[in-house]
Design goal:
The protein is about 25% helix and about 15% strand. The protein is an alpha+beta fold and about 220 residues long. It folds into two domains: about 120 residues, no CATH class; about 35 residues. The protein has a five-stranded mixed beta sheet. Strand 1 and strand 2 form a beta hairpin. It is globular. The two termini are about 25 Å apart.
């Protein structure tokens, strides 16, 4: 049976690191580092540069009843988010969400958005399972909003990197020797290579921490 999550090897991938660093940050070559001595005597303040940011094309969350198998009081919803926040026009993921409403409505403070981490693990089940994760005061005062990050769980499109996960889960994720560390790095590189080959459209460009952390 296919496992509905991406293995933790994604964390170590060079693709993720390079993707997060791909923004056009200024470098020494693009900055004018010369000093104008005449400007120091000026009493006129320099104009403050301003920038405008276009609003993100996020749709509202559409909440509805869940399937009868879900516990009482749980609502289900979806939200569409762009593949890329830098270019929102190229497509969207549809994320699956669930919410466990605050149990004491009169004392409700707000909402907590939760994600079990991994990375690459579905997390919407944390709402119906909220009693397992959170203390009663938290359950009383907050709505617990949980979601399946892009590419996982019931979110679409679903990203399934490899056909066989057992060898990766058998890896020693707490290496103690140089040989064990090298083996873990080799497994991570192999996993990333397989994932990029199979899911290149989503993985290399849109499935990294810089995008996922923004929803």
């Amino acid at each position: 049976m296919r496992r509905r999550f991406i293995a933790p090897f994604l964390l170590m991938g060079a693709l993720l690191v390079s993707a997060c660093g791909a923004s056009s940050a200024p470098t020494a070559e693009t900055l004018d580092l010369t000093v104008d001595d005449t400007a120091a005597d000026s009493t006129t303040p320099a104009p403050i540069a301003t920038t405008t940011t276009a609003p993100l094309p996020l749709s509202p969350i559409v909440w509805d009843k869940c399937s009868p198998s879900e516990p009482k009081g749980i609502k289900c919803g979806i939200i569409k988010v762009p593949y890329s926040y830098e270019d929102p026009t190229i497509g969207t993921f549809t994320l699956n969400l669930k919410v466990h409403s605050a149990e004491d409505a009169k004392k409700r403070i707000g909402s907590l958005i939760v994600n079990r981490g991994g990375p690459g693990a579905e997390s919407a089940s944390m709402a119906p399972d909220a009693g397992f994760y959170f203390s009663q005061p938290i359950l009383d005062h907050f709505d617990i909003v949980a979601f399946d990050p892009r590419g996982t769980g019931a979110s679409t499109p679903f990203v399934d990197c490899v056909s066989e996960y057992d060898s990766y889960f058998a890896s020693d994720v707490t290496p103690n020797t140089p040989e064990e560390k090298l083996a873990l790095v080799d497994d991570a590189r192999r996993f990333n290579a397989e994932c990029e080959k199979k899911q290149r459209r989503y993985f290399a460009l849109h499935f990294h921490h810089c995008q996922c952390s923004r929803y």
